[in-house]
Design brief:
The chain is an alpha+beta fold. It contains eight helices and 20 strands. The chain starts with a strand and ends in a 14-residue tail after the last strand.
Length: 338
């Protein structure tokens, strides 16, 4: 039973990206060229409160997903010490450019004329920085053809207890590279596992959140550091979107996971050259296989703990970069349901 099949093609994606249509420095065309030249097949240009259909960028080897980044904060003004929530919305229909819970206070990057012409979805009342409102916002987005991702949890500075109350997010950023680049703290595996242990059905992905203020060869470049590998059945917009919605993807900062398979109580993993391969069960002690000194490891086998709360594979390369699968339920790995 394959959890990640070696027979299925993987498409490299950046699911969080800003262009000069908001606060990024590159045009959509420039973003396509730079990401395509680095082996990416999928790009979501998620400008702030600025949904745009970028299908004109598509070709046989490249798909641009329609979406945008919404945000909710107390008082509506940026505070470097303040809590806030940023949500990436991905459109099931590439032509869907509806603004969810529209409020002009948040639309500083688009003209009043553009605001007026965009379709609106849901209440246009003042946004509220509360769990109840944020859950309602996500539900409204879902009802209007979007799936919603929870962005950069560490940067958002929210209390863990608050995050555990959110409902409806299909995925969470395991690594937001732009934030990770600054402080090395935006790797969120611990929070992800706590969400799973709290009974949430949520996937994980990584993304750049790039704004490209620095050249690509600069150590301060915020591109090409966090990505998602999507296992779509075919290379079409609908198939890529459906794979994301099903969790047929994994998060990475570098390593590639080529196979994860289960037979009986055994789990088999194959990956690119790594320093260690780990399996998390929701316990205090993950399974771990390490490379020999000055060597690498590409294959590992583990017994699945019969008491496992979930199963999640993590691979670390010699540079300390992680790749992480989503959490697979007991049922998905052949264990009896608790």
């Amino acid at each position: 039973m394959y959890l990640i099949s070696p027979l299925k093609k993987q498409y490299k994606a950046n699911l969080h990206c800003h262009s000069n249509l908001s606060d990024g420095k590159r045009t959509p065309w420039e973003l396509k060229e730079m990401y395509k030249s680095h082996g990416y097949s999928v790009l979501a240009i998620t400008d702030h409160e600025s949904p745009n259909n970028h299908s004109y960028l598509n070709d046989e080897e490249f798909i641009a997903l329609t979406g945008y980044e919404a945000y909710i904060r107390p008082g509506h003004k940026y505070d470097v010490y303040g809590k806030e929530v940023h949500i990436n919305l991905f459109a099931r229909d590439p032509e869907n450019v509806a603004l969810v819970c529209y409020n002009p206070v948040y639309c500083k990057y688009i003209t009043p004329a553009r605001q007026a012409e965009l379709p609106k979805a849901g209440s246009t009342a003042q946004r509220e920085f509360t769990v109840e409102y944020i859950n309602k916002f996500v539900k409204t987005a879902q009802e209007n053809g979007y799936i919603a991702a929870y962005n950069h949890p560490w940067w958002s500075m929210e209390n863990e207890e608050t995050v555990l109350q959110y409902e409806g997010f299909f995925s969470m950023e395991m690594c937001n590279y732009s934030s990770y680049l600054l402080g090395r703290l935006e790797y969120n595996a611990a929070l992800y596992d706590k969400l799973i242990l709290a009974g949430k059905r949520i996937f994980c992905h990584s993304a750049d959140d790039n704004h490209n203020k620095y050249p690509d060869n600069s150590p301060q470049s915020d591109s090409f550091g966090g990505f998602t590998m999507i296992m779509a059945d075919e290379f079409t917009y609908d198939s890529v979107f459906s794979a994301m919605e099903r969790g047929e993807m994994y998060s990475s900062m570098g390593p590639l996971i080529k196979e994860v398979s289960v037979e009986g109580n055994k789990i088999h993993i194959e990956c690119s050259e790594a320093d260690r391969i780990m399996v998390f069960f929701g316990s205090k002690k993950p399974g771990a296989k390490f490379a020999e000194a000055d060597g690498t490891i590409t294959v590992a086998d583990f017994e699945i703990d019969p008491r496992a709360k979930f199963v999640r594979v993590s691979v670390v390369d010699r540079f300390g970069n992680f790749a992480d699968t989503r959490a697979f339920s007991r049922k998905e790995v052949g264990l009896s349901e608790e």
